[in-house]
Amino acid sequence: MDEVEGLFPVPLLRARKLLNDGLVTALRQQIRDAHTQTNARSGLLSHTQIVGPDANELYRQVTRVVGPKLVEFGVLLFGDRLGWAIKEMWTNVLEAGGSQSMHAHANSFVSGIIYLSPSHPSAHTVFVRNPGASEFTFRHNTGTAQMGPFNAGKWVTPDIEPGDMVLFPSYLLHEVPRNQGGQRITLAFNAIPDRLDSWGYTVSFGP
Ligand SMILES: [Fe+2]
Fold first, then answer.
1. Distance 13 CA to ligand 1 centre (A)
2. What is the pLDDT of residue 195?
3. How far is the CA of 151 from the centre of ligand 1 (A)?
4. Alpha carbon of 103 to ligand 1 centroid (Å)
């Protein structure tokens, strides 16, 4: 019997309904009352200020719920239960017709997105294989070619509900295609471990 090994996969954690409806509603209200800045590349995308996880009571509640998930995800990345801290949080409001261009998050190890509204299927977060990866640069993209984890260039987050969260390595490129539905609201954050150790040589990180 032949065996196929999925070598060096990239983890992405999905936590369904991580935030309860009450917290989701309260966060949406807080965003509605907050001062927002328009995205540099899309006038239909705006962000609240980037702040620390203890900036307000609702963010503290989110941080308490997300914390154990960061530890769990950190085991996948580094094989150990490390101390994790969210270092910044912000929210994104994407109006109909808006999009978010492809990007990754710098100076961070784990990033997360929590959905605070329904997301029209056209605007589900798309994760993109690094186009600069050291592998074949030939593609076989036809209407009939079967796509799987070894040849797909993109992965679209399926069936998103308010309160759901995704965690992913911060280097992973992602984007939001043009939103063909209603207003879409997300909370995003970046997280770092307190320290990493390679045979006694350690590096420490602080917010
Ligand atoms: Fe992002």
1. 15
2. 96
3. 23
4. 6
Q: Which residue has the tokens 């399926």?
A: 158
Determine if residue 92 is left, alpha or beta; phi over 0 gives left, psi from -120 to 50 gives alpha, anything else beta: beta
Segments in 54-195 forming alpha helices (H):
57-78
The string of pLDDT tens digits covering residues 190-204 is 999 999 999 999 999
Instruction: Quickly tell me which residue has 């530890």 as its tokens.
Output: 71
* Mean per-residue pLDDT of the chain: 94
DSSP 77-108: HHSS---EEEEEEEEEEE-TT--EEEE--SS-
- Ligand 1 centroid, distance to 207 Cα (angstroms): 19
**Residues listed for the chain:** 207
Domain annotation for the chain: domains and CATH numbers: 19-131+151-194 (2.60.120.620)
